[in-house]
Automatic annotation (TrEMBL):
CDD domains: ABC_MJ0796_LolCDE_FtsE. One of its GO terms (cellular component) is membrane protein complex. One of its GO terms (molecular function) is ATP hydrolysis activity. This is Lipoprotein-releasing system ATP-binding protein. It comes from Paracoccus lutimaris. The keyword Nucleotide-binding applies.
């Protein structure tokens, strides 16, 4: 019972135009339940494209995307959006927190959008912030937090709706090396504690080696 299966995914940008860019060709991979998989790829190999297809933000030219066994490739935009909201959590290199809201509010809002009651959403936000060591920063806005703290809040937001799968693109890529290692430890502990499945793209081979499995994309 894989959480994510990509089967025979191909993608070319500018198909049919004067300068097509083939990026993915017949790519297959899976992420099992509770498994944390590293995606290691040289720049330009198609890592972001792959994460966008897995995250139902983009479609492949051919192949299938199965989330919890359900083929999402031919689903309507509406049910893909719904699946994205309910089953997927995203983390990027940059935190993308809403600047006018506090750390706690940034974690509460996606829950309210998903129909969670306010009190339960507040409690979950506090619990998540405590897990990443930031309960004392709940009422701070992103600009009042360090880069490492902003990224930790972004992890909490990604987990706010208890997704089945976390998709992360260089989650500590914009932090200095020392902070990056510490913040990555926090992410791994959070993922392990919650039994979350994850596909985490990174250039850092030491970080990749600490995950359950490494998938390489493109020539290294
Ligand atoms: P990575 O994340 O591994 O650096 P990307 O998935 O972002 O790679 O991009 C893979 C290749 O596809 C690159 O050569 C990039 O220039 C190209 N590419 C990405 N997005 C587009 C697009 N929207 N249109 C055309 N080419 C694109
Ligand atoms: P870390 O390495 O844990 O990410 P830093 O050493 O960068 O944190 O920051 C230490 C403390 O200083 C943090 O608790 C943070 O709240 C505070 N701080 C960092 N940058 C800023 C900032 N730009 N504005 C206000 N407070 C900040």
């Amino acid at each position: 019972s894989d959480v994510l299966r990509l089967e025979g995914i191909s993608k070319t940008y500018g198909k049919g135009g004067p300068a097509p860019v083939p990026v993915l060709s017949d790519l297959s991979l899976s992420v099992g339940r509770g498994e944390v998989v590293a995606l290691v790829a040289p720049s330009g190999a198609g890592k972001s494209t792959l994460l966008h297809i897995a995250g139902l933000l983009d479609t492949a030219d051919s192949g299938r995307v199965l989330l919890n066994g359900r083929d999402m490739s031919d689903e309507s935009d509406r049910s893909r959006t719904e699946a994205r909201r309910e089953a997927l959590g995203f983390v990027y290199q940059f935190h993308h927190l809403l600047p006018e809201f506090t750390a706690a509010e940034n974690i509460v809002l996606p829950q309210l959008a998903n129909g969670v009651a306010d009190r339960a959403a507040q409690a979950r936000a506090q619990d998540l912030l405590t897990r990443v060591g930031l309960s004392h920063r709940a009422d701070h806005r992103p600009a009042q937090l360090s880069g490492g703290e902003q990224q930790r809040v972004a992890f909490c937001r990604a987990l706010a709706n208890a997704p089945a799968l976390l998709l992360a693109d260089e989650p500590t890529g914009n932090l200095d090396p020392g902070t990056s290692d510490k913040v990555f430890d926090v992410l791994m502990a959070l993922v392990r504690d919650t039994g979350l499945s994850a596909l985490i793209a990174t250039h850092n081979l030491e970080l990749a080696a600490r995950m359950d499995r490494v998938i390489r994309l493109g020539a290294e």
